[in-house]
Amino acid sequence: MAIDMHSHFMPKGLSDALRQRTKPPMIYRGDDGKERMQSLLGGPPLEEGFDSLDKRIADMDRNGVQRSVLSNVLQDIMALPVEDALPLCRIFNDSISAACVAHPDRFSAFAALPIADLNAAVAEFERAMAMPGIVGAFLPGDGFLSAQRAEKFAPLLEAADRRGAVLMVHYGRMPNDPDAPKPDLSDNKQLRIGTLDMQARISSNMLTFCLTDFLGRYPNLTIMSHNLGGNIPFEVERLDHRTLVDKPDAELPSARIRKARLLVDCNSLGARSIERAVEVYGADKIVFGSDGTHFGMNWSQNAIAEARITDAEKRAILDGNAAGALARVHNRMHNRMAAAE
Question: What is the pLDDT of residue 3?
Fold first, then answer.
């Protein structure tokens, strides 16, 4: 049975709040009678039962997933002005914690935070981490495209470090960010943004985490990226080559990446990609991820099964590495509570 560390979900508390909104992000009923999501990225129809815990558990059972760490499927709410973002993030966090209480053997969760205001984000992080089931938080990848940009999150990372939390850094935009990359989407929009742009930005996140000293200040937190850390497994030889040419006395990027203290999930990548990632990161850095869909759960299960790696490495990716990361959070939280008594 797998532990799914990359599992997006919208709890009913949040979906009900979005049904009450009259501007994006909101849920409305179209002329065809189907509910649709109107977000900043468009208005796709919503799958029947998209906010049903029972349906999610059924999908998990069908695909051999024992536990899912649920995360915010609608990043738009985090990037709203704080007066809109904070109440929606609170609703998400309260609702997702309630899901963890109702099904403690099936769910853990990452908190959603109002990132337009870091003081509010830290306060909401502290509130959420005191709630059952919350093991960390979900952060937008555009905030970590460089170490300089990541400095904005220092107060939040300090709070996460004190709690030994897991922070999932996921492809996503920052509010009011004129310096964000702006890809040309005049053709092949879905492929350019959903694969090329996404993987490139995740790769930049990984350089921040692995090839700078930024994370050295936070020894107790666990940073997690997704989609096998972007293109790093396939570009690491090029990174080494450039370093040998430009800085021959420097430690090679491949060595620093191998030693980096982080996790990457295998969501949406295939068997050959997983094999390469095991070579580059080590199997102990890779966890199961699915995006929270039946298709994704089945895809990742098949990819791991078909990968030409050892059974022990497959088991570590399926559940062992995730179980260790979650246990570290719970142990540190227990120790903090015991020390406070």
Answer: 98
CA distance 259 to 126: 30
Per-run averaged pLDDT (10 residues), the chain, 341 residues: 97 96 91 84 75 97 98 90 96 98 98 97 98 97 97 97 97 93 94 96 98 96 98 98 97 98 97 98 98 96 98 98 94 60 53
Q: 250-258 long-range contacts, Cβ below 8 Å, gap at least 24?
A: 253/210, 253/211, 254/280, 256/210, 256/211, 257/206, 257/210, 257/211, 257/232, 257/281, 258/282
What's the token pair of residue 301?
A: 């299960």
Residue 102 lies in a domain: yes
Q: Cβ(142)–Cβ(116) under 8 Å?
A: no
| Cα(68)–Cα(178) distance, integer angstroms | 35
Q: Which domain holds residue 239?
A: 2-11+52-340
Are β-strands 222-225 and 107-111 bridged in parallel, bridged antiparallel, or unpaired?
A: unpaired
* CA 3 to the chain's CA centroid: 14
Query: What's phi and psi for 29, nearest 5 deg?
Result: -100, 125
Q: What is the pLDDT of residue 232?
A: 98
Per the structure, the count of domains in the chain is 1
Q: Rounded distance, CA 177 to CA 322, Å?
A: 33
| Alpha-carbon gap, residue 167 to 226, rounded angstroms | 11
- Pairing, β 262-265 against β 286-287: parallel
Residue 35 maps to a domain: no
